[in-house]
Amino acid sequence: MFGARQQTSRDIFLHCSLLTADEVLILPVWRIFHNLFRHPLRRFPGPLSHGASRLPIVAQLWRGKLVYHLEVLHARYGPVVRTAPDELSFLDTMAWKDIYGRRVGLTSGVPEIPKWQRFYRVHATKGQTTIMNADTELHTRLRRQLAQGFSERSMREQEGIIGGHVDLLLRRLREGRGTVVNMTTWYIWTTSDIISDLALGSSFGCLENQDWHPWVRQFASSSKEFTYISGLRMLGLDWLVGMILSKILTLTAEALKKRIAQGVERPDLIEELLKNLKSEQSLDFESIHGTARSLILAGSETTASLLCGVTFQLLTNAEALERVKKEVRSAFSSEKEITLLSVNSLSYMLACINEALRLYPPIPSGLPRYTPPGGAVIAGHDVPENTVVYIPPVAMYRTPMHWTDPDSYHPERFLNQPDFANDHLDALQPFSVGPRNCIGMNLAFAETRLILARILFSFDLDLSLDSVNWLKAQDAHFLWRKPALNVTLIPVPIPN
Ligand code: HEM
After folding, report:
1. 352 is in an annotated binding site
2. Any stretches that span the bilayer, and where are they (predicted)?
3. CA–CA distances in Å: residue 108 to residues 79, 102, 104, 115, 200
4. Which of 388, 438, 441, 452 to mutate to test the pocket of ligand 1 (most atoms within 8 A of CB)?
């Protein structure tokens, strides 16, 4: 009996070692064979190596070069490319609506294509659900409750909070008169202070202290880690992710608890979520906390990138800089006149911002969706179920398929100039489209317009020599890894 048990254990051990060998050798070979010769996506164009395995894409992601790599692949293989065994990348403008623009709910009859959770779970703590990764039902609820905080009316009420931080930024920049300042840092500090004030009820205080808040510093330096985690998930190594996540995520729970304890009405982004905290419809604390953190993650680095991008483009395009300065300085006679509302009349400056979004989209990486049972039709292609699909923004915004002189900065393309009549302006969707598009778009535009107009009104700017190549070959780890953007600011005399 004992012998038989021993025999069984040995059998199991042998079997396990065979299985391991299987996994290491036979399964991958079989899988590669399957991916290349039997997989339903085999008819789509793309490099053999990418059709065989996801490793080449993950390697580019980890190197921070994926956004450029996708540009090269599309230039070589056309508007649809098989970028991994079960993955397609699209450059057709119709794909925006087909991938992201599905309507939720019975009236439309077409459900949304869900987010690819292997990618989206990365930003949550273990098991935590946020607006970014919630299923359709919870997402609809969260979005409805948050929408109020992002309405036109709320933004007018928030002007005091936003304006206060912008005033402080301008004061700090004046203090450094004539010296070289790193605008990357000032912009990140400003947008982080604004969004923390609006999402948590108290500001991180970076501008006040002229120093990094630990959370902001951690996020600014952790985008690379997020990409590593993302890649591990894509390769199916979730257990490793669990170990790493708990180390790099800091919780903002304390600030939120204080905001709840205050109990006051405040025109911020989470007022509506907190009002319902005690009702049956309410979300639990962790979901609110996760969502508040998502707001900060989504709203700080992105808006700072847009500000950096437009500043850099203007400082390297003298004609555009002169024209936008003239527009701003002739529209206002004092800083006080520059408000969230009044900046909307600056049509050339708005075109400059749009063109900066094209050449430097704050979210340069594709946002992956996963086709549901039955598959989907995308840009006229029948795509089978369980396929990862996305639009790669950098490739989309720089392809000659959609843009005249795509690598140069021409704000005029957004002002109906005949030279750019063949441009496909609807290819540019930096805030995405559909039910999961950016809820903070108006806020991002408002902050960017206000800050840019105030800076252009108050300073002459000069790019430092060491920042002339700021944009060239910047790595993208989901978000850009922005180096220092060094600029000299000369205060313009204030008119009497
Ligand atoms: C220039 C700045 C910004 C850009 C380019 C941008 C872009 C985007 C994009 C492309 C998405 C879709 C993400 C996806 O499909 O996974 C998104 C979602 C989101 N953004 Fe923004 N964003 C910006 C600023 C902001 C700001 C200031 C906030 C304010 C809190 C914000 C909050 C959000 C939220 C909460 C979502 C998720 C929406 C949902 O799932 O319903 N974003 N953003």
Report:
1. no
2. 12-33
3. 28, 8, 7, 19, 35
4. 438
C-alpha distances out from residue 263 to 106, 285, 400, Å: 37, 15, 54
Tokens of 57: 């894409």
Q: Which conformational region is residue 191 in: left (phi greater than 0), alpha (psi within -120 to 50 degrees), or beta?
A: alpha
Residue 436 Cβ inside 6 Å of ligand 1? The answer reads yes
Q: Which residue has the tokens 């002459």?
A: 460
What is the separation of C-alpha 45 from the centre of its chain, rounded to a whole number of angstroms? 28
Residue range 31-43: mean pLDDT, rounded: 94
Atom of ligand 1 nearest to the CA of 445: 1
ipTM computed for the complex: 0.99
Cα–Cα distance for residue pair 207/183, rounded to 1 Å = 13
The token duo for 168 is 């402080």
Q: Under CATH, to which class is 124-364+407-491 assigned?
A: mainly alpha
- Tell me the CA–centroid distance for residue 419 and ligand 1, in Å: 32
Taking a C-beta distance cutoff of 8 angstroms, is the pair 111, 81 a contact? Answer: no
Long-range contacts of 285-288 (CB under 8 A, 24+ apart): 285/253, 285/256, 286/128, 287/128, 287/129, 287/130, 287/138, 287/142, 288/256
Tokens of residue 135, six digits: 């299923």
Q: Is the separation of the CB atoms in 436 and 112 below 8 Å?
A: yes
Q: How many angstroms separate the Cα of 105 from the Cα of each of 99, 321, 436?
A: 16, 46, 13
- Tokens at 296, concatenated: 């900060």
Pair of tokens at residue 390? 């996305």
pLDDT (tens digit, 9 = 90+) per residue, 41-85? 999 999 999 999 999 999 999 899 999 999 999 999 999 999 999
Q: Please identify which residue in the block is written with the tokens 């549901």.
A: 372
Q: Give which of 213, 246, 253 is closest to 229, Cα–Cα.
A: 246
Q: Is the CB of 313 under 6 A from ligand 1?
A: no
Distance CA 242, CA 457 (A): 48
Residues sharing a CB contact under 8 Å with residue 141, sequence separation 6 or more, in sequence order: 281, 283
Atom of ligand 1 lying closest to residue 139 CA: 41
Look at ligand 1, atom 18, and give the residue with the nearest C-alpha: 438
Tokens of 23: 């996994």
pLDDT tens, position by position, 373-384: 999 999 999 999
Tokens of 286: 């962790």
Residue nearest to atom 20 of ligand 1 (CA): 438
